[in-house]
From TrEMBL:
It comes from Carnobacterium alterfunditum. GO terms for molecular function: oxidoreductase activity. Residues 464-552 form the Rhodanese domain. Belongs to the class-III pyridine nucleotide-disulfide oxidoreductase family. This is NADPH-dependent 2,4-dienoyl-CoA reductase, sulfur reductase. It comes from the Bacteria.
Amino acid sequence: MKIIVIGSVASGTSVAAKARRNTEEAEIVVYDQGKDISYSVCGIPYQIGGEVEELSALTPRNAAWFKKRYNVSVFTEHKVTKIDHATKQLEVTNLVSGETKVDHYDVLVFATGASPFTPPPFNKRKYDNVFQVRNIQDARDIGAFSTKQPKKALIIGAGFIGLEMTEQLMHKGLEVTVVQLEDQVMPPMDADMTFRIEEHMREKGVKLILSDTVKTIEGQTSVERVITTNGITIEPDIVILSAGVRPNTELAKEIGVELGDSRAIAVNKKMQTNLPDIYAVGDVAESFSVITGKPIYRPLGSTANKMGRIAGDVMTGGALEHRGVLGTGIFRIFDLHVGQTGLTEKEAKKEGYDVEILHNIKPDHAEYLGGKELIIKALADKKTGRILGAQAIGQGGVDKRIDVIATAITFKATAEDLFHLDLAYAPPFSTTKDPILYTGMALDNALKRNPLVTPAELVSLQNSGESMQIVDTRSKKDFEKAHVKGAIHIPLAELRERNEELDRTLVTITYCNKGVTGNAAQNVLINYGFEKVYNLSGGNKNYQSYLKMLNQK
């Protein structure tokens, strides 16, 4: 059996390695039009920024290493230009010599990855100071240009790469402007969470321009000036395009490989396409949601490695299957770590879930040992109690909490299950009631007895003229500093004596600074016979942040 893999980054090399581990009988050949193999795309921003000293650290393996280790023939700078699946032959062009040869396969794997999208008007002409961050050659090109010591950078797009490059270029001393088409950074997340990222970026000196795009470019060989749709003029020395990626499906489409709804290659759980003996893995292939079972496209290196291993196993007689993804991701932006897993609020509602939403604001570990504020936004299905997703922002401990929740979602855990987890505790690492445990407890309470209302829901109720009473349970000092519009001030310590001042038949909303005291007040009123009592999710702090977001959008 002869296996040919087109593409040699995360997924392609994983296919070859796993297939060889399973059998010594197969001939395995990998073609890639690039110069480098098995490199870390995700590490490129950090090498550009200087956190990774040598570019070679991102390319630990080469073709000779693969040949010696796995007896796999890897041909770099070789482009597959044509495939005839009826005869199982393909044409390959040596990009250095220009020579073309014909090769044959028994099994073919598309590991062709994805290419960065070039938005207009940058797609009209090539400029010597415009770059993308997708492969090792891009890193070399940006490194070479950096010798000109650019002072001002323009970044188009505020996804993972855009925000990581923002951080790294700021660390190098450049002035950075970010232009984002949508009205928020990190569009896959919920706006009430990403607003915190936007505030942090502006505090660090980033000029952030949302709901805008570049309309015109001035300059012939270099971008000297751009003017946005909203009339803002920017004069950058270097431009980084990070406007997303598109799967490289052209070769596959030519031979009849079917694409999915996401426009990536449709595959089954064994990474097989609609054509016999043809597989697709990595950023060119579609995945599916662990929660909904529906196809989704989440191009990440971690998923690509998994897909490659599964395909390499299946084609050599193994039984591995892809189990889907949650879209789990994490990044750092200056002092903040930002992570997410599962469905966001907007995604869950689009899928038809009736969700309970908690904003849990707690220190990531004991405050007396330097614990810093961590906010977790978590969702549970009201019908089943199952955890559906979470987003977290903080200066530490985000990865741990997101990974725990991702594991819990994978095994269909409920909010109550989260509370009962036996997690590691010591003051340098956690609080006695870990933020995960508190998230599970508070969500479970909300599902059974103590419902929550989000700031967005409260503002909607206020705007609709809904008859309700809002009770601020904090100190007089905190109340006078900032409070919810229309709130009545009754400190928790006085609530048992003064609850007669309230109408037990009205919808009642309690709140404090972050949620805990508001929940205590909610219990008091429920026990006194109040009919509908809600606690404000995330308290006044979360509410004021939401109002600020509305005023700035």
